[in-house]
Design a protein that fits this description.
Largest sheet of chain B: 5 strands, mixed
CATH topology of the largest domain in chain A: Aldehyde Oxidoreductase, domain 4
Number of helices of chain B: 5
Strand order of the largest sheet of chain B: 2-1-5-3-4
Largest sheet of chain A: 7 strands, mixed
Radius of gyration of chain B: 16 Å
Helix content of chain B: 25-40%
Oligomer: heterodimer
Order of helices and strands of chain B: EEHEEEHHHH
Helix content of chain A: 25-40%
Shape of chain B: globular
CATH topology of the largest domain in chain B: Ubiquitin-like (UB roll)
Mean pLDDT of chain B: 94
CATH architecture of the largest domain in chain B: Roll
Number of domains of chain A: 3
Chain lengths: 786, 166
């Protein structure tokens, strides 16, 4: 079969048939003989001393196989470690016991675990575990944490997790420059709940004969889970197999290694029975990580002509009750280093204080640090424009890094790979028909209607990353990626990747890379991932790294296959390697197209090994480990038009335009899907979503009925377009695209709403822009009682 | 707890099982019949991942007791395809990239089938409103809406094509 150009084609996803037929296996779908079920007993208090745990009634309940507390796990399940210990910031890493020992530190902290023959029996018995608590005052509010007499961890004074800073240039001096105006604003980036549609789950099985422990788990990175769990369980890593089967979304929430996973794995060995635990949504809201939760005081220094000369931010970041796996990196390096965005800002000064509170731990949520930075920057750009009476498009254009200045090193020290930022801005304005919508806005204002136009111009850092660099930032691993591309004797190809996609579609895009490079039909390529037994090593799927890092490893492995195949073909055709041409999956002698072998024929010969070049090993596979030289930096401009109903405060998005540049595009259909999903999560932060606690630390938004995950009817038709600026960082020229939408959309929508309300003199409102909040602001602005 | 006998037809096959009276239809399907294509995504009947057709109408199977489905005809995602051929809604979700992680997809497709039975030619707005009971966190809904439109076209074009899965 002749192979057409598959790179860049809108290929339907190859993972879909099992998903649309209902035959995919998620962790909670795993069934095993003798399976029993675990249920956790969780603290109803945000902060309390555990005085007594009485498990006797639970133990004698029907079907119960065991009830375990912290004491029972002593010396068997160790503290859950933090995997990203950012240096030079006085980071505190208090222990995180798998089950709370002396104190509970947030509502949902696990105190005991019950195992029973059925799911229902486990829940029933969990109700019978009696825990006596001495309730302690809770520290819940981010700002109060530093001053509070209450300490979440006794050995962490002021509840201060870290104090981190990055500085480039001299902000003070820039701000003193004659004519420069400094615009200030406090910005709250509220706490969010990731809400992957599949809650977390773990199923573990121990084979006493082989000594092998297998854990099926809802993970974005099974190899990291294996490394960490082998330490937590003191279990030999080579006997521990971690499988991330079908995973129903993650958005960062399935990066961390959680206590429940370690406990379930341990119980399978202890009871010599397979054990399953599947989180309820209520548990998911309480005990799976949350995201964002910053309070920032920002200052932007700008010349009268709109040139931005400095940015200073002071950010308070709420870490919750324990340090989650990657938590320290999120509000520090993934936030502070990208504060320059797509602009030339010579003077940047960022200081971040992290605090513990008696709330659910926070960690990476889609975008992880970069949405927070982009929100600060893009709000401040708009406020600066307003201060100067400039058009928001104009102030952006004036400050964008010009396309001929790449690689470009920003004041925070990182070096951007490639970009044409102005082109994306121009394209977005063109699609929107900017002058026309501005005219419509003016006309609407005449009629008393509040239309607003919002822009957000962003650059993202992703594709982590150079292992040396992430190592220097405290990451306890590498971030290279592995791939094996293996022909079978009949000419089919299996690809093994160390990334662990869970919706992002790399079973398709990686097959496209291999099909393109080896000239084999797409349907002859199978992409496998998510099993530590079959995959050499890998660091997982997050941070928009899967295609730029994992895809490049696949590409390089395919090159090795091609080189070896060419040597075999040359040997058998009795010509030199250089005399062969590879076209459409076939080697032929230059100038003699009839003399040739297909790559499938070569594969068979490689396995028969009857006639290989002297000294060559049989078989046909390539293995590559790719460690990139730099991150990649996707960018773009989003623009939207909103209307605010002054009677109700309701915000309606009339149009949403996204122009993204993720370098070369392998599959436009999949890229569109990634952008759409990201936009909606970003819009949702601007308008609807917020995790709220009462002063005692109870999560008020504790269910899907109380927390506003967006619905289809709340959203407009999304208009997406792209520019394409390849990166020189990898041979495919690809950047990541999983988080761009989330990063760009939030400030885009808030800027639009503030633009709509500008005739009323309203300068800033914090998110989410709930109708009540907007309505109150309008009433106040009009001089009415709030 | 004493068991109670319950019988129903699922995807054209009649099943009888003894279950606890409190057993929810979704766990009956998943744990008693092994039909794990129907998912549990929440505990407040909000997300719709568990949506199945009961006597042709979409219901959230986490909010129906198995005993309430006594004698009913149930269609789950596993029953949408006919003789191995994908149902037009499945084909459309595939063609239009209407799914990413796939967790909400079975419920989403069955809710869409219910809509197309009632309204064979819905507008984008009508589709968005009809799917309000089903949450998706991956797609931002745009490709789901496109898929439902495409399925409506395909089903309108194929005379006599079955609307439901049974």
């Amino acid at each position: 079969m002749a192979v057409t150009q598959v790179f860049g084609a809108r290929v339907r996803r190859r993972e879909d048939p099992r998903l649309i037929r209902g035959t995919a296996t998620y962790t909670d779908d795993v069934t095993l003989p003798g399976l029993c079920y675990a249920a956790f007993v969780r603290s109803p208090h945000a902060h309390a001393r555990i005085l007594r745990v009485d498990t006797s009634r639970a133990r004698s309940a029907p079907g119960v196989l065991g009830v375990f507390t912290a004491q029972d796990l002593e010396g068997k399940v160790n503290s859950i470690p933090c995997g990203w210990q950012v240096p030079n910031c006085d980071l505190k890493t208090p222990p995180h016991p798998p089950l709370a020992r002396d104190k509970v530190r947030f509502v949902g902290d696990a105190v005991a675990v019950v195992v029973a023959e059925s799911r229902a029996q486990a829940y029933d018995a969990a109700e019978l575990v009696e825990v006596d608590y001495e309730v302690l005052p809770a520290v819940v509010d981010t700002e109060a944490a530093l001053q509070s007499a209450t300490l979440v961890h006794d050995d962490v004074p002021q509840n201060r997790v870290l104090l981190w800073s990055v500085k480039g240039g001299d902000f003070e001096a820039a701000a003193r420059e004659p004519g420069v105006r400094v615009v200030r604003q406090r910005l709250v980036n509220q706490r969010l709940i990731p809400n992957a549609m599949e809650t977390r789950a773990a199923t573990a099985q121990y084979n006493p004969g082989t000594g092998e422990l297998t854990l099926w788990v809802t993970s974005q990175n099974p190899h990291i889970a294996r490394v960490i769990l082998s330490g937590v369980l003191s279990f030999p890593e080579h006997k521990l197999r971690v499988i991330a089967p079908e995973v129903g979304g993650g958005f960062g929430s399935k990066i961390p290694v959680y206590p429940e996973e370690a406990v379930v794995a341990h119980l399978a060995t202890r009871l010599a029975r397979p054990v399953k635990w599947a989180e309820t949504r209520r548990e998911n809201y309480l005990s799976t990580i949350h995201g964002r939760d910053h309070i920032t005081d920002a200052e932007i220094a700008v010349r009268p002509d709109g040139t931005v000369v400095g940015l200073r931010v002071r950010t308070l970041a709420n870490f919750g009750a324990y340090l989650s796996t990657a938590a320290p990196a999120i509000p520090t390096i993934l936030y502070g280093l990208v504060l320059s965005g797509p602009y030339r800002i010579p003077n940047i000064d960022c200081e971040v204080t992290g605090v513990f509170t008696n709330t659910t731990p926070t960690d990476a949520y889609r975008g992880a640090g970069r949405p927070e930075a982009t929100y600060v920057l893009e709000r401040m750009m708009d406020l600066a424009a307003r201060e100067l009476g400039m058009d928001p498009a104009e102030i952006r254009r004036r400050n964008l890094i010009p396309k001929d200045q790449f690689p470009y090193t920003v004041a925070t020290g990182i070096t951007y790979d490639s970009g044409d930022y102005a082109r994306a801005l121009d394209r977005a304005l063109e699609i929107l028909d900017y002058p026309k919508v501005r005219a419509e806005q003016a006309a609407a204002r005449q009629q008393g209607r509040y239309l607003g136009i919002g822009l957000s111009t962003y650059v993202e850092i992703c594709g982590a990353g150079p292992s040396k660099v992430v190592g220097a930032t405290g990451f306890a691993g590498g971030l290279w990626e592995s791939a094996v591309v293996r022909f079978s004797p009949t000419g089919k190809v299996t690809v093994f990747t160390g990334t662990s996609p869970h919706g992002q579609g790399e079973e398709t895009t990686f097959a496209q890379i291999v099909s393109q490079e080896l000239g084999v039909p797409l349907d002859d390529v199978e992409v496998l991932h998510g099993d530590t037994d079959s995959i050499l090593m890998g660091w997982g799927t997050y941070g928009s790294r899967t295609t730029p890092v994992g895809g490049t490893a696949v590409y390089l492995a395919a090159q090795k296959v091609k080189e070896k195949a060419q040597r075999i073909a040359a040997h058998q055709l009795e010509v030199s390697v250089d005399d062969l041409v590879f076209e459409n999956g076939r080697f032929h002698v230059r100038g003699a197209p009839d003399r040739g072998m297909t790559i499938q024929e070569v594969a068979l010969q490689a396995y028969l090994a009857w006639n290989l070049p002297e000294g060559m090993e049989p078989g046909l596979e390539g293995q590559a480990n790719w460690d990139p030289s730099n991150f990649v930096f996707p960018f773009g401009t989003h623009a939207c038009v909103v209307e605010v109903d002054p009677e109700t405060g309701q915000v309606r998005i009339l149009r949403y335009v996204a122009v993204d540049d993720c370098g070369r595009v392998i599959n436009p259909l999949i890229v569109d899907g990634q952008v759409h999903g990201g936009i909606v999560q970003g819009v949702a932060q601007a308008l609807w979503e917020a995790a709220r606690y009462d002063p005692a630390g109870n999560l008020l938004t504790g269910s899907m009925a109380d927390y506003a995950v967006p619905k289809a009817s709340w959203l407009p038709h999304l208009e997406c377009d792209r520019t394409e600026t390849p990166t020189p960082v990898n041979p495919l020229g690809v950047k990541g695209v999983g988080e761009t939408g989330t990063i760009a959309a939030t400030p885009c929508v808030v800027n639009a709403v503030m633009d709509a309300l500008s005739p009323l003199g309203i300068r800033h409102l914090d998110m989410p822009l709930w109708p009540e909040r907007v309505w109150q602001a309008i009433r106040q602005a009009k001089g009415g009682a709030a | 707890m004493t068991g109670v006998r319950v019988s129903m037809t699922v995807n054209g096959v009649e099943y009888t099982r003894d279950v606890e009276p409190r057993t929810l239809l979704v766990y009956f399907l998943r744990e008693h019949l092994g039909l794990t294509g129907t998912h549990v995504g929440c505990d407040t009947s909000t997300c719709g991942a568990c949506t199945v057709l009961m006597d042709g109408k979409a219901v959230k199977s986490c909010t129906v007791l198995a005993v309430q489905a006594e004698g009913a005809r149930i269609t789950t995602v596993e029953g949408l395809a006919r003789d191995g051929e994908l149902h037009p809604i499945q084909q459309a979700f595939w063609d239009e990239h209407g799914l990413q992680c796939g967790f909400c997809t079975p419920g989403m497709m069955l809710a869409a089938v219910d809509l197309l039975q009632r309204n064979p030619n819905p507008t984008e707005d009508e589709i968005r409103h009809a799917l309000e009971g089903n949450l998706c966190r991956c797609t931002g809904y745009q490709h789901i809406v496109n898929a439902v439109k495409a399925a409506a076209r395909a089903m309108g074009a194929a005379v006599g094509a079955p609307a439901g899965g049974e």
